[in-house]
Structures are given as structure tokens and as C-alpha cells.
Design goal:
The chain is an all-alpha fold. The protein has 6 helices and no strands. It has one domain. Helix content is 53%, strand content 0%.
Amino acid sequence: MSKKPAPQITPEMTVLDIVSHFRQTQAVFEQYEISAGECICCHALFESLEAVDKKYNLNLDKLVCSLGESLQQSP
């Protein structure tokens, strides 16, 4: 039997794609609300992580890493 590859979050994915497939990532986006100054899920739902990074001046690598780490948790 082969193992399923671990799900990955990429900078090209939209916030909606990520949150709808991986519910536990919503908590990560909520943690970034303070830095962003507004609710990312409310105001950037259809934007890619790359666009969110540029819009809110976040650290894209850190955001992708935090979202990936959240996948290790139960949904």
C-alpha cells in the first residue's frame, strides 16, 4: 500500500481554497488579523496567499509555514 502524499499549501492557493479544504487553517488566518489590520477571511477570501502577502505586507514564507503546520492538527 502506498501512502497518500501529505497535503500542501502553496502561495498560489486562495484563502477560500485553503479554508474550505483545511478548516483548521482558519485559526492561523485569525492570528494574522492583528498584523493585517482586518479579517483576512472577510476581505481577501478570493485572493491568493501571494496577493494577501503583498496586500498586508506579511511574511509569505512564515504564513505558508504556519498554515502547513496547522495541517498536522486535527480538523
